[in-house]
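User: Please run a holo structure prediction.
Assistant: Happy to. Please share the sequence and the ligand.
User: Here you go; the ligand is magnesium ion.
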Amino acid sequence: MAEKCVFLDRDGVINRERGDYTYKVEDFEIIKGVFEALKVLKNRRYLIIVITNQAGISRGIFTRKDMKECHLYMQKQLDYMIDDLFYCPYHPDQTASLGRKPDSLLFERAMAKYHIDHAASWMAGDKERDLIPAKKTGLKTILISNDMESDYADYNAPDLITAAKEIINKP
Ligand SMILES: [Mg+2]
């Protein structure tokens, strides 16, 4: 049976956007309301899959091990509610990658792996580059922002808990 899923960007949606790479556990600050938001979505049987650009890896700023420590911390803080996480380590200065948002390869891989029902699924991100691949792959989109607007956003919400409540109230 096809699954419904809420895809999430990481930085600026789950953890606070620092305006710089976040690769140390001590800098990994989970945004207020995210735990409750995931709970709301899990209760409605959505898969939760994170899709994140982590180009600092190919730029040599941090290692996969650093990133994985942050993700283990994230999972522990969030009661392991994230079902899967796909990341793109490449930066266009070094290696072009179709996995890097705004390209859609990681979405397509996740959709194939979990038999995701595109029309019943969503993407929440804080940048237009999160929403572009989502639209391309047939997802509904929510822009998490207080001040930004985007032609690629079906809905806007200031944070993930507001977005989660919007999602469960849509048909
Ligand atoms: Mg972001």
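Residues 64-77 form the longest helix (14 residues).
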